[in-house]
Every structure is written in structure tokens, then in C-alpha cells.
From TrEMBL:
Pfam families: DUF3108
Protein name: DUF3108 domain-containing protein
Region of interest (Disordered), residue spans: 69-97, 130-154
Biased composition (Low complexity): 130-143
Organism of origin: Duganella lactea
Length: 371
């Protein structure tokens, strides 16, 4: 083999290798372009659920002043029931001297005498009304400031499937299911809880809570909350923001409406919004006015710590908040577990009654919903 033929053969091999590499680079460039185009294309999928297991540093504990008791407003005075004026008793035949001092009937256009005015005042005194009585002062309009103001960033809309486990004071155990919903468009919201027990092919709701209202600078601002229990009439709590009061369908009592006031349905989501707003706010006690069936009391939540809980979704890292019993106001303990890695959603709620009965709701599935 001559040197020329050897070089010619290797030249053909080199050309073939260069051509092969060029084709590979062209293919890689085409695939990269397709992937880039798909990445730049807007996604039409639903919002995804954050599932990062966050390990956040707990804020330093800050002592708070004793919680302020909220007293009901003075009830408006009831209208007096007028007593019927007794029929005049016929007087004995007057003597000329008596007839001389008896006032004659008023002529048309004549002014009433002081004796007539005093008689009218006496009639009013009989029914307990002073002639110059003034109407009771109306409560201040709009919510009043009540303690700390919190930075709130409310979580996105979602539906929660929950398992319900209850242990009565005598040790009897019950199981059931609950559905909790939270929907907001940034201006208004709707929230609900439906809890019950499963019977064969159906479920019997034992408790239904519903709440609706607006979103303001203090977070969730309820307008109306309802509660329906089995074999009981539905009750309603009204948050009258124009009048600055909280009123109830089950009683005539009313309370002053404080900024940031909540109902039983919205409390867990308001706490989640406080966590999303600034985790350091949990360094101090969280005081929230809560309107219930017949009263509005101040709930004080304290951060217990970071805990990992077992759920059907797996182990979740949570921040445990607790509202201990308050003698004279409420006798139960309320515990709420928020998941920082899942939009600070409430993933477990537990109520411990004074009798020892225990009810625990634990998340089994979370579905993100569009606004």
C-alpha cells in the first residue's frame, strides 16, 4: 500500500467522523429548541400543592399581658308598657268651696297650666320614664382595635378531606369523616366544615359550620357564620361592621366587634395567614376575638413547638398552636397544627373537653382549587 492510498483512506474516515459529529450537534440543537419552547409555553395546570418539609427556626418567646375580657354591651332599654289609666271615681257632691278651686275645662286655644304638666309627669313616672330621658348611646360604628395587629397573608383556596376520631369521657370510640373548604378570590371568602359518621353507603352530618365575608387589612372579616347540629335548630352569628357589634340569633346579647374578629370556622385559616405573613409573630401570644353561639370571647393561642404528625398523606412537619382552657370563659382546650411546607394549611385540629372527651380531625387529602 502506498502512502498516498493510506492517506486517502484515512481522509475519507476523517470526513465521515466530522459529518457524524455535525449531525449529532444538529439533533441536539433541535431537541433543545423544542424543550425550550415547551418550557416557555404557559402552563394550564392547576396550582400545585407545596410539600416541602420546612424546618424553620422557632421565634423567641415574648411574654404577653393577661388577655383582656370582653364584656357584653349594655342591652338597649325596652319600651315601657303603659299602664291603663284607672277610671275616675265619681266624687261626692262638691261643696261650693271645692267647686270654686276645681279647674275648668280648657277653652280652645288656651295654654295648659302647670298642674296639667305635673299630671303628665306623674303618669310617666308611673311607667318609669322621666320626661327628659335621652335615648341610650349607640355603640361605636366599625370594628374597634383590640390588642396586637397582625400581618396576614391568607393561604390559597383548597378543599380538605379529614378523618375524625373521637373518644368519649367513658372511653367509647367513634370514627367518621369531615370535609373542610376554604375559598377566596382575594376580596371575599367562603369557608365550611361538615363533619359526620359513615353509615353503610351514606354519611350522616352531625355538625355543619359555614362562614362568609370579606378580606380586609386584618385578614378574614366574617359577616355571617352559621352552625347546625343534629336535632338542634340552626344558629347564626352576625358581624355588624357598620354598627360595630356582634349579635346572635340565639340571644339578645351583643358584644363590641374588634378588629380581626373571627368565627369558629375561620380561626384555623386566620392563624395560617398569620404564619404566612410573618412566622416571628408566633413569638408572642396570638389573641383573636371569636364569635360563637351566644358570646364573643378572646381566644389566646400559644406556640407549643414544631412537631411531626402522621397522616394518610405521610409524615408532615407542623407548628403546634394551643389555646388552653380559660376559667370563667371556656373549659375546653383547642389545638391546631399548621403545615408551613403546605401553605400553612391547618392539617390537624383537636378539641379536648373538660370532661376528658377528645375529638381529633386529621387531614387525609388536600385538593387545590382555582380562585
Amino acid at each position: 500500500m502506498t502512502i498516498a492510498s493510506f492517506l486517502s483512506r484515512h481522509r475519507r474516515v476523517g470526513v465521515l467522523c466530522v459529518a457524524t459529529l455535525a449531525l449529532h450537534f444538529a439533533a441536539i440543537d433541535w431537541v433543545t429548541g423544542r424543550l425550550s419552547a415547551q418550557t416557555d409555553r404557559p402552563s394550564a395546570s392547576k396550582p400545585s400543592l407545596m410539600t416541602a418539609q420546612l424546618k424553620l427556626s422557632l421565634p423567641k418567646r415574648v411574654e404577653s399581658a393577661p388577655v383582656e375580657e370582653i364584656k357584653p354591651l349594655a342591652e338597649a332599654p325596652r319600651k315601657p308598657r303603659l299602664k291603663p289609666r284607672p277610671k275616675p271615681i265619681p266624687a261626692p257632691e262638691a261643696s261650693p268651696s271645692v267647686a270654686a278651686i276645681t279647674p275648668a275645662p280648657l277653652a280652645e286655644g288656651e295654654m295648659a297650666t302647670s298642674a296639667d304638666v305635673l299630671a303628665t309627669a306623674g303618669d310617666l313616672a308611673d311607667v318609669g320614664v322621666a320626661p327628659d330621658a335621652k335615648p341610650a348611646a349607640a355603640p361605636d360604628a366599625a370594628p374597634r382595635q383590640g390588642g396586637r395587629r397582625y400581618k396576614v397573608n391568607l393561604p390559597p383556596s383548597a378543599t380538605f378531606d379529614m378523618t375524625v376520631d373521637r373518644v368519649d369521657a367513658d372511653g367509647t370510640k367513634w370514627t367518621g369523616a369531615a370535609t373542610m373548604t376554604w375559598h377566596t378570590d382575594g376580596n371575599r371568602y367562603q369557608a365550611s366544615v361538615e363533619a359526620g359518621i359513615s353509615l353503610l353507603v351514606t354519611r350522616v352530618n352531625l355538625l355543619v359550620l359555614r362562614s362568609e365575608g370579606t378580606i380586609d387589612d386584618s385578614g378574614i372579616a366574617p359577616e355571617k357564620a352559621t352552625e347546625k347540629r343534629t336535632r338542634r335548630a340552626e344558629t347564626a352569628t352576625h358581624f355588624n361592621r357598620d354598627a360595630g357589634t356582634i349579635t346572635f340569633s340565639a340571644t339578645d346579647r351583643s358584644y363590641p366587634l374588634l378588629a380581626g374578629a373571627q368565627d369558629k370556622t375561620t380561626v384555623p385559616f386566620q392563624l395560617g395567614g398569620i404564619g404566612r405573613g410573618d412566622v416571628n409573630q408566633f413569638g408572642g401570644d396570638i389573641d383573636i376575638q371569636v364569635g360563637e353561639d351566644k358570646e364573643a370571647t378572646m381566644f389566646r393561642f400559644q406556640l407549643v413547638g414544631e412537631e411531626e404528625i402522621d397522616t394518610r398523606m405521610g409524615k408532615l412537619v407542623t407548628w403546634h398552636l394551643s389555646r388552653p382552657p380559660k376559667p370563667g370563659s371556656y373549659s375546653s382546650r383547642l389545638d391546631i397544627w399548621l403545615a408551613p411546607g403546605m401553605n400553612w394549611y391547618p392539617v390537624q385540629i383537636r378539641n379536648t373537653e373538660a370532661s376528658g372527651a377528645l375529638t381529633t380531625q386529621t387531614v387525609s387529602d388536600i385538593k387545590m382549587t382555582d380562585k
